[in-house]
Structure prediction request, 344 residues.
Amino acid sequence: MQKKWLARLYKNRQLVILVLLCLVFAVLLPRKFLTIGNFRNILYAISLQGIMICGATFPVLLAGIDRTVSGSAALAGAVCCTTIVSHGFSTGGTLLGVLLGIGVGLLSGVFHGLVLSRFNIPAFLLTLATSEILYGLVQTVTGNQLINVMNAKLFNLVGSSRILGVPVPVYILLACFLFTYVMLNHTVYGRHLYCVGGNREAAKLSGINVRKIIIVAYIVSGVMGALSGLVLSSMNQQASASQAKGYENDVLAAIVVGGVSLRGGAGTIQGAMFGALLIGILTNGLQLLGVASVYHDLIKGLIIIAAVAVDMYSSHKMSGLKRGSALRRMFRRHRHESQLKAGA
Prediction:
């Protein structure tokens, strides 16, 4: 009976952790934390990273990574805002700017997908280099100046409007989550994605078009990154050369904390969203407690280390290997060999 109870707790560990964290902050901040307005603020705060997570989860499930989500966001916002300004804040200019911004993410995804599916280059190194290139392009597009779009009323509605009291970016996050959930759980592509992430060679032998799977994964990641950049520019009513910088770390942290394995083939978008919520609630609680922001990154770093350690331990347990047994077998073999040599 006790084992079944513990098994259920482990199975629902993400929900248990969220509830416990909320209870801690509810006790410490009884009048500030447990309010509808505060939870609305948490959802609003994680909406940008959440949109990025919906896309960046695809490469991670392939045992890859996309560190250009923030660069795609920054360049998409810069291209969109400069287009809007150059067309006199017109409706046509706004729509063209949004399309060009999405196009930035699309091109970024196609490039990464083609290169990674063709050449044996580590995704981390490629996307890290591309991220620097994208931010260099952002500086070129903006001229290292703020691009103000306060007069673009249609564009700014996305970041400032509310529907039934809920900010529009939260609805965009919900739409991205539903799209990703359906893609991963109810399509042939989703099943093939998990197969390729779990064992690429076996997927090839079974007839799966591995190259297509990789290209589509990075396209989704690039487009979602660009979409988050457009939402961020609408929120701020401007674009800048350093926009969204550092967001990729929060995205990766949420994905790993949410149980998506860095070795690919395991994890869910629900888990990744749990990671985003956990970090969002933690950051919100620390801010309400008056903890200096310099300590937030330290705590996030510790959470990532703990999550990776749990991932490694869980994978080791699932493999059926027991470290202690392996060590005992090694010592027994060594002792047996020593006895044979002594007998000879």
